[in-house]
Amino acid sequence: ERQSWGSEERKYEMPFFKGHPFDIRILVKHDSFLVAVNGKHFVEYKHRIPLSKVNKLGVSGGVEVAIISFQDTAPPGAWCPTSAGITYAAFPPTQFAPGSTYSSNPAFPPGPYQPQTYPVPYYTSIAGGLYPSRSLAITGTIPLNADSFHINLKWGTDIAFHLNPRFSEKTIVRNSFLHQCWGPEERGLPSGMPLSRGQSFTIWILCEAHCFTVTVNGHHQFAYNHRVPNLQQIDRLEVEGDVMLTCVQV
Prior knowledge:
Keywords: Lectin. This is Galectin. This protein has two domains: 24-103, no CATH class; 122-249, Jelly Rolls (Sandwich). It is globular. The strands form five sheets. Strands 8-17-10-11-12-13 form a six-stranded antiparallel sheet, with no helix packed on it. It has a five-stranded antiparallel sheet with strand order 16-15-14-9-18, with no helix packed on it. A three-stranded antiparallel sheet has the order 1-2-3, with no helix packed on it. By secondary structure, the protein is mainly beta. It has strands spanning 24-28, 32-37, 40-46, 56-58, 79-81, 87-89, 101-103, 122-125, 135-141, 149-155, 158-166, 171-178, 181-182, 200-207, 211-216, 219-225, 236-241, 244-249.
């Protein structure tokens, strides 16, 4: 701001490697940006200027850009809240050339946003199926009287990944339903239960070559090893149970 750089913040941990693809996600909170790299929380950066002044995205330097996108299953131009109550414009996936800039559309209405909610049970297709580096994000609020809800990644009647927060048990159960049979449950939460009744959340699921990694509100929680060999056949997302959905990004 004011044509001068501020003080640098450095983290001496390099998540990027020459010749390797990467995925950067930026979550806007009311007081900071949360940055995740390849499905893992990397750094938090406190805001230094009002968010209302931020209206462009630029990429430059030694990088080949494959895609820059604001993804959402709502109609183009809908507004999608984060878990912190901040809103951003949701667009269909869009590609930009390296060094180009993205400017926010002034036609979008400013001012207070009244959160939309998605119907629950919620079902949507995953165009092209899953593959390493593809991710999905589910944002919502947990009712005060919630018992449980679940997120399924599936095809046909089989469920490749069943993610089931259970509030009375204070855990998130993970499993697969294949050939009409449930497999062994996974329940471990090294950092404890990250979801609470009455709270908003964002769950980010990143598909990697050997597993799904799950991040909740910017913090890595666990990995779930794939139990199916063909990830691309996973073409459907389901959300059911005690939850209010406000944003789904596929």
